[in-house]
Design brief:
Length: 245
């Protein structure tokens, strides 16, 4: 296998982490915390035959989620990404079937209605017209299939990111469609999807020192920050599991 000598794909501005950061102990822990709950959702939803289900990850980053799925017993794994160098780099971390393609493409490089699960994490906010994600997924999802997606959680703490000395700036120039959770719920429903589960989660962020303060407070009082109104507004992502109506 070709070993790449660079740390990032210079053409892929959507992905801000370096390979060395992901490969570090802290990076691996972060990815496991981010992705293992999604793997568990798939296991629970499909029960006894979860490991044989066809799973497509759209916007693969550097293959972290697909690598975690493989390490946890999932077999039929596919990925799609528009950046050839990102795909090449991802092949160092996953043996999944990776193919070039854009969400906006009229035809994806897969058979129609092939997938039991389509996942897309921190991708839809990069689209000029996010509706295309929901319409295109329908063409490649099985009738009983599910979609798991995440996108930045645009609530009050997110707006604080632009406040000097307080917020953690969002310097990603490709975040052109960051929206409130209500927007994504409405878009899914307007495109005839049923919402099975929705939550704010992954990790506390947006505001400097918020992670330590909020996490410590919740630990002391025995609360899960993902389930507490106001507090969960500090969670980085809004996540949904949806299926065809």
């Amino acid at each position: 296998m070709k070993v790449l000598t660079y740390n990032k794909d210079p053409d892929n501005l959507t992905f801000s982490h370096s390979v060395s950061a992901l490969a570090s102990k802290g990076g691996q822990k972060f990815m496991e915390e981010k992705f293992m709950p999604k793997a568990e959702i798939i296991r629970q939803h499909f029960s006894d035959d979860w490991q044989d289900r066809n799973i497509l990850d759209i916007g693969i980053g550097y293959g972290s989620f697909l690598g975690i799925l493989k390490a946890n017993g999932f077999k039929n794994l596919y990925g799609m990404d528009p950046f050839p160098t990102s795909i090449e780099m991802s092949r160092q971390f996953t043996s999944a079937d990776l193919r070039m393609g854009r969400i906006e493409d009229r035809e994806w490089p897969f058979e129609k209605h092939m997938f039991d699960v389509i996942t897309s994490f921190d991708v839809v906010e990069h689209l000029q017209e996010p509706k295309v994600f929901f319409t295109q997924c329908r063409n490649y999802l099985k009738q009983d299939g599910i979609i798991i997606l995440s996108t930045p959680n645009k609530q009050f703490p997110y707006y604080l990111r632009s406040v000097r000395w307080i917020g953690i700036p969002d310097n990603n120039p490709t975040h052109i469609n960051v929206n409130k959770p209500a927007y994504w719920i409405r878009l899914a429903q307007e495109n005839n999807y049923h919402i099975l589960k929705k939550w704010k989660g992954e990790h506390i962020t947006h505001v400097k020192k918020a992670r330590k303060i909020v996490t410590k407070f919740c630990r002391i009082v025995g609360l899960d920050p993902r389930n507490v109104p106001i507090i969960n507004a500090f969670e980085q992502s809004f996540c949904m599991v949806i299926k065809n109506n």
